[in-house]
């Protein structure tokens, strides 16, 4: 599943730096050789890092479904990502 999640961010301007942890991982149904998996990722929250203002934390929900569209696995994780600098505020 992780091999499928990484390329999702390659199609964005978001630069991942590290994983901050998996909060929940559940295998709901066995996955067999020959199964095709479809993986979806939902952004649950995003916030700036308290200690490094150039970084942010994104919490995500990842789900995998088999050929029959049956949910086979789910996990929640948090990743550390680069943050874009804010544009200066106008003074006028």
Short description:
The chain has 1 helix and 4 strands. It is mostly beta strands.
End-to-end distance, in Å?
Answer: 49 Å
Oligomer: single chain
- Give the SSE string: HEEEE
Strand order of the largest sheet: 1-4-3-2
By secondary-structure content and strand pairing, the structural class works out as: mainly beta
Overall pLDDT score:
78
- Overall number of domains: 1
CATH superfamily heading: Hotdog Thioesterase
Q: Count the DSSP helices.
A: 1
The total strand number stands at: 4
Beta strand %: over 45%
Low-confidence stretches: none
The shape, in one word, is elongated
The percent of residues in helical segments reads under 10%
Instruction: Round the Cα radius of gyration to an integer and report it.
Output: 16 Å
CATH class: Alpha Beta
**Looking at CATH, which topology would you report?**
Thiol Ester Dehydrase, Chain A
Identify the CATH architecture: Roll
């Amino acid at each position: 599943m992780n091999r499928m999640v990484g390329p999702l961010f390659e199609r964005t301007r978001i630069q991942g730096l590290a994983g901050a942890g998996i909060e929940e991982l559940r295998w709901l149904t066995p996955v067999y050789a020959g199964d095709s998996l479809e993986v979806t990722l939902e952004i649950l929250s995003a916030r700036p890092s308290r200690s490094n203002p150039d970084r942010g934390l994104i919490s995500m929900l990842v789900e995998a479904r088999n050929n029959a569209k049956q949910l086979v696995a789910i996990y929640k994780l948090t990743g550390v990502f680069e943050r874009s600098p804010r544009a200066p505020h106008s003074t006028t």
